[in-house]
């Protein structure tokens, strides 16, 4: 049979080199942007929770009135 070459070590090195190169391309947001986006997400989640709670109360009231 023919000899096979084990390229596993070279593939791992190339993978990690490529990974490092991709991480270098990332543009991380600054603290102000992260703070603004966090506030937007939290306020949206709270608003949606309140809307769902109000709809739930209306449905409960409607069902108790009908039954």
From TrEMBL:
Any single GO molecular-function term of the entry would be: protein transmembrane transporter activity
What's the protein's topology in the membrane? Single-pass membrane protein
Give an example GO cellular component term for this record. plasma membrane
* InterPro entries recorded: SecE_bac, SecE_sf, Translocase_SecE/Sec61-g
Name the GO terms of the biological process aspect: intracellular protein transmembrane transport; protein secretion; protein targeting; protein transport by the Sec complex
Q: Where does the signal sequence lie?
A: none
Its subcellular locations are: Cell membrane; Membrane
Annotated keywords: Cell membrane, Membrane, Protein transport, Translocation, Transmembrane, Transmembrane helix, Transport
Q: List membrane-spanning regions.
A: 39-59
Name the Pfam families for this protein.
Answer: SecE (PF00584)
Q: Which NCBIfam families match?
A: secE_bact
Question: Which family does the record assign?
Answer: Belongs to the SecE/SEC61-gamma family.
Q: What does this protein do?
A: Essential subunit of the Sec protein translocation channel SecYEG. Clamps together the 2 halves of SecY. May contact the channel plug during translocation.
**Which proteins does it associate with, and in what oligomeric form?**
Component of the Sec protein translocase complex. Heterotrimer consisting of SecY, SecE and SecG subunits. The heterotrimers can form oligomers, although 1 heterotrimer is thought to be able to translocate proteins. Interacts with the ribosome. Interacts with SecDF, and other proteins may be involved. Interacts with SecA.
What is the official name of this protein in its record? Answer: Protein translocase subunit SecE
Q: Which organism is it from?
A: Lacrimispora saccharolytica (strain ATCC 35040 / DSM 2544 / NRCC 2533 / WM1)
């Amino acid at each position: 049979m023919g000899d096979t070459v084990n390229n596993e070590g070279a593939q791992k090195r190339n993978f990690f080199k490529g990974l490092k190169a991709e991480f270098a391309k990332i543009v991380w947001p600054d603290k102000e942007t992260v703070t603004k986006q966090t506030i937007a997400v939290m306020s949206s989640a709270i608003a949606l929770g309140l809307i769902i709670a109000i709809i739930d109360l209306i449905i409960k009231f409607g069902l108790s009135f009908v039954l």
